[in-house]
Amino acid sequence: MTVPNRVGEAFAGFVLPARGGLSQKLSLTDRLGTLIYEHLFIRVPGMQMATRNKKDTCEVFSINQKKVDAVRKVMQTDGVIKKLAQTFKVLGDPTRTQILYALAQDELCVCDLACLLGKTQSAVSHQLRVLRNLDLVKYRKDGKIAYYSLDAVHIKTLFATGLEHIKGP
Prior knowledge:
mainly alpha; disordered N terminus
């Protein structure tokens, strides 16, 4: 018996109450869609739902306008925030993070990085291009070899700060 048949049998008796107190039988697709909807949006008896912790939110609506105005004055532009978010998104890839860590130790060529990470030269080259487009790494040519390094000292600092954050004090 295939999985779709088992799923169909499991929900074969599912009946959704219709308007006016009448009920109607639903197709398998409708039944599954309804179950997903109920799981996400409706409290169903017996189903665990996340509860709101009143300690971690304001219990009254109150705005400290002085603080809001002070922070608004130093807020970055949307363009800067988008570029920062894009940088963090790029850093969210484990392979790119490994590349940055390796380059924080020493300048390496694509072949060295591929060997170190156990990846193909093509895969490493692709990731380096992404990092280069965000000015996180730079390269220099020495004959036929392209050596990569971090683009600036602050990239190493950013990386070290991230490591310090996850490792703790």
